[in-house]
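**Fold in tokens:**
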Amino acid sequence: MTIRQILASLAALALVGCANAYAEEPVVAQQAAPAFAGTVASADPRATAAGEEMLRRGGSATDAAIATMIALTVVEPQSSGIGGGGFIVRGSPDGTVTSYDGRETAPAGATPDWFLGEDGEPLPGREAVLSGLSIGVPGNIDVARRAHDEHGKLPWATLFEPAIRLAREGFVLNPRLNASLDGYADRAGLTEGGRATFYADDEMPKAVGARIVQEELAQTLEAIAANGPEWFYDSEFGAGLAETVAAATPREGKMTTEDVATYSSKERPAVCGTYRRHKVCGMGPPSSGGIAVIQILKQLERFDLAAMGAQSPEVWHLFVESQRLAYADRELYTGDSDFVDVPVEGLVAPAYLAARSQLIDPAARTDEVEAGQPPRAPQARATGEHYPDSGTTHLVAVGPDGTMVSYTSTIEGAFGSGYMYGGFYLNNELTDFSFRPERDGVPVANRVEGGKRPRSSMAPTVVYDPQGKPLLAIGAAGGPTIPIQTARSIIGVIDFGMELEDALALPMIMAFGDRVIVEEDTWLAGAIPALNALGHEQVVTSGFLFRTNAAMRTPQGWVARHDLRLDPLLAMPGPE
């Protein structure tokens, strides 16, 4: 992928995976002083309200998180929903951390050459995405079921009530969703259901302020609520989902009824490390996000960032160099640990990361960065390539007892594959696999295989303070930038003592190949000459915009925030 393409993808994400422009300001004011024990943050105030309703009704943080995810299916269809998958990380007040894997799976009949064309070369990205090949068996409903079975307090059906109301009664179309519908009409309007729901005619999306009613989705949600999560998978509905994927044109997905009926989410060991005496825990494989967050942080621990100051170019030089090390390991080692040997313990081992940190020169950019050799590293592994995502959302919920739930949900690209079933969009998650299964005869860890889960960058994270008390639940949307956003804000809180909103507002800076991309119109963009002097010769600015959501414990109680970087849409008033 060229730098022009990645910048276009990053800029597009500003319109795809973000919050409702209408109500961001009043919602933040509401979240600043919670009126009840516990709090919720998400990318849309109407979904946040669904989670808050569960807390008011005596529900747990898990109940609130699930209700929020289901509501996002209705109001944020461009970014997430029950047609996709997700990861849940739950941190209890006593320090126990549990993680749940609801990643989509490839059909049993998938093969390593899944995304290769007749000429043996990878398919063009758009051709791969808008096809049945890209659709994995959705995992969000089953991972919600698993988490609810263990930690829910309210009845399963109760969690669906706010979303059903939103779908049946409708919600006001905001500028951000309208812009996404316009910019991604080839996906959102791919099927008759999408066109009928969101478009005034076959080409133009409904106007800002129009009420969006989704009766078919309301009926689907009612059936899942009444019949339980198994109805989604092991019934005529699940069979119809498989048939929809298998009938996709021009490239069918080969998904079977058995693929859907046998899907199972999993409880996985959380990956944990420490950063300046804080315990940091996240999602392990098939996500690379938890490992990357810990690596980025731990490799910076020997540097006194606080003394340098948040606006020091040297801090962000170090941050970029730590990213480069972490992502070199990510590309080589991470994948679905049910299929490949991922040396998780070695990758986050303090001794290994201390050695990797020594490769960071505080005065100059390192010319070449390669993956390391962590303990128990497998041999003969190659790096791969995949299609970048732009359709993800993150939410957090904190219960009255301080239990933290961090939940990242995705359909991969904007409006996923474009195929709609049951009133919701189906993911294109399988394009997160490497399109090339091998390089020079050496297999890629993230190659396609039947029943396998593609590698993810999602990084739902929980943080405990040095006394072992819950401190922070955090995560982000934004494809491969997710661990970077998450680590950046954790540094803001821990190193610079920032209020949560200030930590989330820190400018974005990311390494991409030989280039460094800096968020334009920020104080960090003014530091480009200093970054050049440190050896980062190719520094470019971008208007990309991401969303990090978090909740943090303060002396006044828990507060929730989401990223409020300004864009023109935020200035547009509206009723909701």
